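Objective 1b of the project was to move from sequence-level analysis to a structural picture of ligand recognition. The entry below was assembled by the postdoctoral researcher (A.K.) and checked by the PI before modelling. It contains the amino acid sequence of the target and the SMILES of the bound compound, S-adenosylmethionine.
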Amino acid sequence: MRQIAEKTQQFEWYSRYEAFAGVLGNHMGTGARVLQVGCGNSPFAADMVAAGHVGEIVNVDISATVVELQAKVYNSLPATVSWHVGDCMALPNSAPFIEASFDVILDKGTADALMCGGDTTANVAAMRREANRMLRKRPVSGTTTAPCFISITYGDPKSRVRWFSGTEEDWDVCVYAVEKALPHKALGPVQVSGTDDWQDKTRAWESDVYHYVYVCRVRMNQQSVM
Ligand SMILES: C[S@@+](CC[C@H](N)C(=O)[O-])C[C@H]1O[C@@H](n2cnc3c(N)ncnc32)[C@H](O)[C@@H]1O
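Corresponding predicted holo structure:
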């Protein structure tokens, strides 16, 4: 029993959903179809549901252990929330991983984890490519202003902008800083793609008191509209 109790304990990297709810709400509606990559054993999806999210939340993690635990711990959540083993750098090509079918790809700490391993450039590029492949290329009414990859990280703009802006995906990227402590005040957004002044605007954010949220929106003038 003790082992099971220990195993079912949840662990959240960075802050809980409530810290980011305001920023996320600027970019996704409660009906958004969300793919959370590297969900871990975090309560984030459950917190979204508790806060009123009614759209599908597909959770994927490379660890079969955490996926199995999440499915057990959250078996009373609505059927709109599902748990899957998979690699965010090479997602399956079967349901629910349908190309161009998600409004939001959500990453909290998974790009950070990839950056701590070897082959960082190739791995982060593969993650971005898969996220872009899974994103719709135009918004569905009431789900987003633009389909987007959202990365929540400890990495400040100086260390992260180059991983998300000016890449092959040609995303329109902005960044927020969110205070780690209550009341989790959010600063921004600051536009980082197509501008030169983001470094000046975010220099004061280089501090341990913040987490950062990068919102990478699909440009609506892309050719491959679906
Ligand atoms: C830093 S933890 C973050 C977990 C959770 N998102 C949170 O905020 O608490 C990173 C997670 O990414 C998962 N992960 C690492 N590489 C992955 C990959 N290639 N595909 C899917 N998940 C991966 C790990 O198993 C781990 O659960």
